[in-house]
């Protein structure tokens, strides 16, 4: 039973998380002007169709607006926090070239992303256990080398409370 | 009674003007792409903002850039008009700087008034070549 639509792979979480353009924190709005017909706008159309979902998934707080058939030439415009505007002409460029260019001028570099990833990892300790939201494992029985969960493997007699109580009563 | 409110979240936004019936205020509709959790597709979600427009220069249909005010002007007005990006009926293409409408330019792009003698001879030679080629066919 295949997914509905022309390229339904665009609607998968794996595809969305594969986007590598993460904007710097100063980018607030991204505007794409493109045309629905014409060879020069072909790259821009492919960019909007394939890459915009990836970019928006990675940058949920950047406002992205699309304008169709307003001007004869296709372009991208970024509005930064300090009032600066960046105009990117995308006439006669393929969608891959557009994403590379945008990543180079306004994307966070690989080193910054790895540093942020490392800092996020430092906050949570992988050896602790607790609620699934904050830890990897919920109960001590899930950790290798610890006593397995009595729901799956019955505890030995010596560890059970009723045996221990019986021994105490006997003594 | 002024209750201390938090800072305004949206610092810069781009939207379309939908109403100018209020004095010195423009009603602007801002669309953002929001991911539907089941379909995993992005849809436009609209929100209206009120922006302070002191010169009342906005017309319904303009695309405007709004800037957040340092503190809110009134109960609903938290932004002011920073710049009109595209004026309705008078769109200027930012790459060339010429007025355009839809996918065509309104004025002639070629530089026919400022041609020198060398240019005119070159162009007429090119025209001759084209004429010869068409007769050959």
TrEMBL record, chain A:
Q: Where is the Ribosomal protein/NADH dehydrogenase domain?
A: 36-109
Please indicate which superkingdom the organism of origin belongs to: Eukaryota
Does the record's keyword annotation contain Magnesium? no
A Gene Ontology molecular function term of the record: structural constituent of ribosome
Name its cellular compartments.
Answer: Mitochondrion
Keywords linked to the UniProt accession: Mitochondrion, Ribonucleoprotein, Ribosomal protein
Under the heading InterPro entries, the entry gives: Ribosomal_mL43/mS25/NADH_DH, Ribosomal_mS25/mL61, Thioredoxin-like_sf
The protein's name: Small ribosomal subunit protein mS25
Organism name: Daphoenositta chrysoptera
Automatic annotation (TrEMBL), chain B:
Presence of the UniProt keyword Acetylation in the record: no
Give compartment(s): Mitochondrion
> A Gene Ontology biological process annotation?
mitochondrial translation
- CDD domains xref list: Ribosomal_uS17
Gene Ontology molecular function: any one: rRNA binding
Kindly state which keywords UniProt assigns to this record, in alphabetical order: Mitochondrion, Ribonucleoprotein, Ribosomal protein, RNA-binding, rRNA-binding
Q: Which InterPro entries match?
A: NA-bd_OB-fold (IPR012340), Ribosomal_uS17 (IPR000266), Ribosomal_uS17m_metazoa (IPR039193)
Cellular component terms per the entry's GO annotation: mitochondrial inner membrane; mitochondrial small ribosomal subunit
Family statement: Belongs to the universal ribosomal protein uS17 family.
List the protein's name. Answer: Small ribosomal subunit protein uS17m
State the organism named in the record. Daphoenositta chrysoptera
């Amino acid at each position: 039973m295949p997914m509905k639509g022309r390229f339904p792979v665009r609607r998968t979480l794996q595809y969305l998380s594969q986007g590598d353009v993460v904007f710097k924190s100063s980018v607030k709005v991204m505007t794409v002007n493109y045309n629905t017909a014409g060879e020069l706008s072909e790259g821009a159309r492919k960019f909007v169709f394939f890459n915009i979902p990836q970019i928006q998934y990675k940058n949920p707080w950047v406002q992205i607006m699309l304008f169709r058939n307003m001007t004869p030439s296709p372009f991208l415009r970024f509005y930064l926090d300090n009032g600066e505007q960046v105009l990117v002409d995308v006439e006669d460029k393929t969608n891959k070239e557009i994403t590379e260019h945008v990543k180079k001028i306004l994307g966070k570099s690989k080193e910054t992303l790895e540093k942020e990833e490392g800092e996020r990892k430092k906050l949570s300790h992988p050896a602790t256990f607790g609620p699934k939201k904050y830890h990897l494992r919920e109960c001590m029985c899930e950790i290798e080398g610890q006593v397995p969960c009595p729901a799956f493997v019955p505890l030995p007699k010596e560890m059970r409370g009723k045996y221990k109580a019986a021994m105490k009563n006997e003594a | 009674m002024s209750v201390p409110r938090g800072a305004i979240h949206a610092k810069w936004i781009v939207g379309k003007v939908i109403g100018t019936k209020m004095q010195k205020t423009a009603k602007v509709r801002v669309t953002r792409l929001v991911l539907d959790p089941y379909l995993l597709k992005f849809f436009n979600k609209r929100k209206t903002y009120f922006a302070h427009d002191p010169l009342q220069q906005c017309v319904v249909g303009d695309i405007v850039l709004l800037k957040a005010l340092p503190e809110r002007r009134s109960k609903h007005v938290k932004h002011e008009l920073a710049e009109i990006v595209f004026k309705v009926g008078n769109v200027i293409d930012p790459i060339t700087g010429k007025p355009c409408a839809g996918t065509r330019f309104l004025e002639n792009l070629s530089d026919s008034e400022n041609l020198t003698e060398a240019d005119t001879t070159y162009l007429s030679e090119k025209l001759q070549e084209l004429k010869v080629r068409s007769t050959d066919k």
